[in-house]
């Protein structure tokens, strides 16, 4: 099983990796909020935030290919959600065509909306990749617990990450078993029936595994508190870095709104 799905490069040693998980989480949250609050067509502000992330990524020593590959996954979903607005948003029509009795017009307002949506989504995903790739998950969960995030949410995240790999392995074994038992061209109906059976079997196995894990935890006296070998320590350097980065994050947003 591969257990480096999210925090593959969290073992590196860099100024970003050494910062407290609570600080990185709060700064990531502040960054995402600032990006979302950036007005439409605030391209200079988006460029400033991208440059900010580029500097932090360079300090973190994360591979560029790894970051781009993971961040671009969000693009198809954003295009799927925002493409209809290209033709429905008010604005100057740049290109139009008739589809039966409907007239579809490509407007500048729609393109601005789609570009803004792409910028906000991509920058937010980059911030989350930076957080997860520079912070070991146990430390991040411990930081969330220290920040008084509801314990049930922290535990759900912990179990989701822990058993995600088991479910992936289970799916791969089921797929291998299906492929070894089917030879030649298969009809779509047969494939759909097989996939439906696999989903049902996976649900039952996951439910049974959850019951066994719960019984084992109760037998061992689990009280819902996550425990780690190293307790978190918030140092003066973390406080100084937090204040500085917080001001840097807010500056483009404030400047962009003032100039507009």
Characterization of this structure:
- This is Cobalt ECF transporter T component CbiQ.
- Its main location: membrane.
- The chain crosses the membrane at residues 21-37, 72-92, 112-131, 152-168, 239-259.
- It is found in: Cell membrane.
- It comes from Candidatus Dehalogenimonas loeffleri.
- With 260 residues, this protein is mainly alpha-helical.
- It folds into 2 domains: 21-148 and 230-259, no CATH class; 151-219, no CATH class.
- It contains 10 helices and 2 strands; from the N terminus they run αααααββααααα.
- It has helices at 21-37, 43-60, 64-71, 74-82, 85-88, 108-133, 137-146, 151-181, 188-219, 236-259, and strands spanning 93-99, 102-107.
- A two-stranded antiparallel sheet has the order 1-2.
- α7 (137-146) runs antiparallel to α8 (151-181) and α8 (151-181) crosses α9 (188-219).
In short:
The chain crosses the membrane at residues 21-37, 72-92, 112-131, 152-168, 239-259. With 260 residues, the chain is mainly α.
């Amino acid at each position: 099983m591969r257990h480096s799905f999210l925090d593959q490069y969290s073992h590196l040693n860099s100024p970003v990796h050494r910062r407290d998980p609570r600080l990185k989480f709060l700064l990531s949250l502040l960054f995402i909020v600032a990006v979302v609050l950036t007005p439409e067509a605030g391209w200079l502000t988006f460029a400033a935030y991208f440059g900010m992330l580029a500097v932090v990524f360079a300090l973190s020593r994360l591979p560029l290919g790894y970051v781009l590959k993971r961040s671009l996954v969000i693009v198809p979903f954003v295009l799927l959600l925002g493409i209809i607005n290209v033709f429905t948003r008010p604005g100057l029509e740049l290109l139009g065509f008739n589809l039966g009795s409907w007239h579809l017009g490509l407007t500048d307002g729609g393109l601005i909306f789609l570009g803004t949506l792409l910028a906000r989504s991509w920058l937010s995903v980059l911030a989350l990749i930076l957080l997860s790739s520079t912070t070991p998950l146990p430390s991040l969960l411990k930081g969330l617990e220290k920040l008084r995030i509801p314990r049930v949410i922290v535990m759900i995240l912990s179990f989701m990450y822990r058993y995600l790999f088991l479910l992936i392995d289970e799916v791969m074994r089921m797929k291998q078993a299906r492929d070894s038992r089917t030879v030649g061209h298969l009809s779509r109906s047969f494939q759909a029936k097989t996939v439906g059976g696999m989903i049902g079997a996976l649900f039952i196995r996951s439910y049974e595994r959850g019951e066994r894990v719960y019984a084992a935890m109760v037998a061992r006296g689990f009280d819902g508190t996550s425990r780690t070998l190293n307790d978190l320590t918030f140092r003066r350097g973390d406080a100084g870095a937090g204040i500085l980065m917080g001001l840097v994050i807010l500056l483009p947003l404030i400047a962009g709104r003032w100039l507009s």
